[in-house]
Structure formats: C-alpha cells, structure tokens
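Study this one:
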Amino acid sequence: MSAVRRAWIVIAFLALFAAFQPAEAHGYLIRVIPDNRAVLSRSPTRIQAWFSEGLEPRFSTISLTDDRGNAIALEEVGVVPSNPSQLSARIAQPLPNGAYIVNMRVAFASDGHIYNERLVFWVGEQGGDLAVSGEGSLIDPLEAVWRAISLPALYALFGATLLYSAVLLPAWRNPSYRAGKLPPRLMNRLTALAWIAVSIAALGTVLAVLQQSAALFAVPLEAVLRDNLWDVVLNGTTIGDTLRLRLILLVAIAAMLYGTRYLSERLPDFVTPLWMAIGGASASALFTFSMSSHAVGSDLWAVPSVFVHWLHMLATGAWAGGLIGLAVLLPVALAPLDESGRRAALSAALRRFAVLGVGAVLILSATGIYNSAIQIRQVNDYVTTPYGLILLAKYALVASMLLVALYHHLIVGQDRLTTRLRQRYAALRERWPNLPRSLRLEALLGVLVLIATAFLASNAPPLPTQRESVPLLTARGSEGALSAALTFDPGGVGGNTYELALKREGEPVRGAQVQLRLAYPALDRRAKAIQLDDAGDGIYLAAGLELDRAGLWWALLDVRLPESPEAVRIALTADLPEVAPALNLRQPSLLNWLSALGVGAAMVWLSLPPLARRVRRVHFTPEIAFIFIALMIVTVLFSIGGAFIISEAGAQTDRLRNPPPQIVNPILPDAASIARGAAAYAQNCSACHGARGEGDGARAAAFTRMPRIRTLVESRRDEALFNAIQRGIGAMPAVPLPEPVTWDVVNFLRSPAFLGR
C-alpha cells in the first residue's frame, strides 16, 4: 500500500472522529435577572435574559420551579419583540421565601443551536446549597457529521470549477473539443467529481434539516419524519430559510450539471459558460454557511465579518478545493501523454495554478488574521480553548501546504531565482516525475485543512471575559417627604426592568399604589401608564419595552399612599444611552483595525493587475479620458449618495411616523408645575370648561357646543394643547398666558389631579 493511500485512510478516520465530537453553540448568555445564585430580599416580578445572538421565538422559553420541582406559573413568556436576543417572563404571583430554579431552553436563530441553562436564586435567606449549574450548549453530534461532509464537498466543487475556468482552460484549451474546450476524458472526470460533491453536499444538507428539526423540537429523528416536523423548521425558522436556500442552490447546480451533458452534443458552445455558472452557484452555496457562521454573532463589525468569512471560505475553496481537483484530474489528463508531453502539460497547469494559489493564500491569510482577531480576544485563548487549539492546528496544516507549494514552485517556477536554483542543483531537475505524488500530498493536507475548518464551524469561539459590574442607570427625585430612586435594568434601549425604591423620611413606603408613565419630550411622545407591582419593603417593580430610543426621558411617578386617595407626582429625568452600561460593549483593537486594512489591501492588490491589463488594451484619447474621469466622479457621487440615502431611510421613516414637534414642552411635569397649572386653569379656563373639563362651566351655555377636554387630552400632543391655549381654536378664544404658565396648564391637563386617575 502506497504512502499516499495510507494517508487517505488516516484522513478518513480523522473525518469519522471529527464527526462524533460534540459541537458547541456559537451564542452564549450575557446576563440574566435575577443573577445565578442571587439571594433576594423580595420576590422578583420578572425573569429576563440577554444573549449574544438573536433567538428563534418559537423554540425559546423559560420555566420556573421551586426546590421540590413544583412548577411556578409564568406569564408573557417569550422573546421580547423589540429585542430578538432577549428572553423574558413575568412571574404571575409573588414568590414566598425559598429556593427557585430557572430553566431556559433557547434556539439561536442564525445556526439553530440549542442552548440550555439552569440557574438558581433564593427569596429571603439562602436555605441550603442547590447543586445547579449552567448546562450550556448541547449539540447533537449529527451536526458535526453533516458539517464534516457538506463543507469539504462544497469546497471541492467550488475549487474544481475555479480550477477549470482559471487554470485548465488557459493551460490546455483545445478548440477542437467544442464541449468544454478540453478532452472528453477530462470533462467526464470533472463532471463525475462535481456530481459526487453535489450529492454529498445535498446529503449533508438533508441531514442538517433533520438534525435541526430533532434538536429544535427535542424529539428523535423518527418523530421528525413521521410528523413532518422538518417542514415546520424548513419554512418557519431563520436557519430553515438558510438551509432551504442551500438546497435550492444545490438543485440548481445539479440541473446545470445535467445541462452540461445534455448540451455537449446539441449546443456545445454553451457548456463552458454553464460550468462558470456552476462556479458562481457553488460560491453562493458557500455563502449560506457564512450566513450561519460565528461571524453572525460577532460583537464587533458583524456584517463586514460575514463578508470577510465568505471571502475566507472562497479562498480556502480556491486553494484546497483546487488542489483536490488537480489530484483527481491530473492522472486522467496525463495518462495518454508521453514524458515530454506530461512535462509540458504539468508545467503549464502548475504555473497557472501557482498564480491562483498565491492570490488565494493572500486572501486566506488576510481574512484569517481578521477572523482570528474578531474571535480570539486574548493570546492564551489559543492554548486554553478547543477553538484556539483547532485554529493552531489549522495554521500548522496551512504552513505545511505552503512548504509543499514552495517545493512545487522550485520545480516548475519560471522566475530567475528558481531557474538558477534548478541549474545549480540537479536534484530539483530530477523531481519532475514525482510531481503528481507531491501534488496528491498537498491535496491531502488541503483535505485536513477542510476538516479543521469544519471543526472550527462546530466549536464555539472563546467566550469574552466577564466585565466588572457597573452601576445601572438610576433616576432620583423627591416631593415633600417622599423620595424615589428608579433604576432601569439594564439601562439601555429596549426591554428594561423598572425598580422603584420609595421612601418617606428615609423609611420604606409599603402598600402604595404606584403608576409610571414614560415620556420622550423631544418627540412629544408618551407611553401608556404602567402599574408597578408592590414587592414589599418599599420596592415596586415592573418591566416593559417603552424605552425605544436613546436620549432624555421623563419618568412620571404618581404615588397613592394607603392613607390618602390623592396621587403625589414625582417627576424624574433619565438620559438613556444607546447601549446599556450593564451589557458587554466591545471596542475594536489595533489588531482589528490592522487586519481590516489588510483585507482591503489584499483585495486592492489582487484587483490591480487585471485592471491594469484592461487599461493597457484601451487606446486613450482626450475624449475617452474625459468620459472615464466623469464616470468615476459620477460613480463616487452615486455611491456616497446611495450610502447616505440608505443610512437616512430608517431615520426618515421614523421621522414621518413620529414627526418632531415645532414646539417642545420644556417644563418637567412635576408637582410644582401641576400646582401652578391647576391655579392658572381655575382662573382662566374652568369658567367655560368646568373644574374637571366636562364642559359644564358657568359660561358653557354661551357656546353652541362645548367639547369635553378630558376626552381630547389623550389624543392630542402637548404642542397641540399649547397652541389651542395660546392661539385659540374654533369658538374658543386665545388665552393670553405667559408661555411657561401655558406649559404648566398642559402638564396639569395630563395629570391625575385633572383626569381623576
């Protein structure tokens, strides 16, 4: 048995071993409220969890049990609509003292991975130590199987089609063969390789659909097939959309492969364009892997990272997949040739493949450094995590491939240095007969690189180090003897928990009824009132999605004490940041910037030679030069304008839906403003509108119709109420009040003191 054949057997065992390694979810839990192993002095009203990636709403849930396994009723369980990476559930009834276990089972939308987490918290004192810990990600080993066969198959398909169009056609083109421009024996072998790759990739994709369905529904494969659960996943989830697109592309590739055979006798000139179309479709199929890769969940430059990941896959396919194609095609291509013919054919092919390989290695290196800088945050991650160790192994394999490629260059290279080396060292000239064998060795190393790539796709990158806890956003204020501290958790745009600490002369206020209304004065918008739950000891809790944008918010608290039916207004202000201070926020490092510049430089460097060749073919005249410069300027302007239009589209839509007012209410509606507004209303408005705005004042009879103000307040913005008072409206005359007093009246009209709520 030859050494090469033994190497193939070793690789087969490695692939089998790879298939049965447990894979890990790419996403992870960022934070949860209540924290794991937290000891709470009062019952929480809601359980909330934030993850690093978006979740599949249908397959993500929370359950709660006590320490005896009894289920606790939860309401509003599911993914928060305004934040697909947040899971929330409201606890229906206050929890008595004791231990409680939170069970979370979530599915990440991008890759369908299941993440299970078990957490514990105590209400009251900690009574014993429960041995509960996070289970983390549990992935069916079948996922590693379909990745280990799908990815290498698509790499080989893309590499073979690129090899055909960029290497074999320029090197061995023969116009006498109209179908494909290459000898039939070579086209038949290429077609067979493509059919095998497509079949394996399709099988892997079908396995992916079944595995994802079994994982999401937590049922065996028999149930997936029996109950057609695969159809639900394929047509109702994000990962299902990705897999369906991959299947469509593979079916299209199979149809085009059939077309190459069908057209070879009928329309042979269309065979070559069809093979190039197959290459484009296989590149698109590789992109579906990037759509569910680590890059999607990156906490830095997610969209560019997906594109760079795709470039990395294309470069891997061009080099490693192209080598596989060479190893498969060379024996049949060289078989009928004599020694001199083999030498000439091999030299022509390898010289062109060297150009392709150099470009692929350049892109592979630049994008690899970029991807590593995104996923690896500290040097010791390379040796302390499975992801880092596999990445090091991949680097070693790529380095081995480069050494073999250098050996090939020394034998067939045409530059001055390699020519002199061959003239000086006879051993290099005598290595020609061994080239096919060393090419197979390089192809074997390429297969190992592809297996390592499949390993990386199935293993989670190192988790970011936990940042130190930071103070949450808290707004404070007081009214008379009452003081309030309202904490927003996590304190950023999106879903938040609102925790109010209410005190009177330093002592907790118990048994109060508290209503919270959040307003965004810059847009003259206010959310619906929220009734806060009494958690005891002067703590009142709620949660909601009202904070939908960054900026200055008013938090208006109306407090009814047990001994008084009248509401006391406490008005607070909170400046909300774009990103919650309690959540992880990653800033690009110098290596991130340098690697991004490296990717851009590699792309520019590779595009310059073909562009220069095309420019040299053009016979420039002043008119052509002028048109070229004008087109470049127009293209740049259109690009800038298009980018500006796209960036402004969302903001413009929001402005159309929520146009900013011409006049913004500058007066915080606190108790003092409401009191001033009540006095001004009583003096200037109540005679017609009545004390409660019912239109029953002493002068109301003088008007044909007196509208009820209280029914109009909720449907009018502050600006409209201000203008109605200042300028009059309909039969109502203008009331000449100073602007600050007018705003006080507007604040009074919205208060419980006027509306009676």
In short: The chain has four domains: 3-18+140-458, 29-137, 473-576, 671-755. Confidence is low (pLDDT under 50) at residues 1-25, 134-139. Residues 3-18+140-458 form one domain.
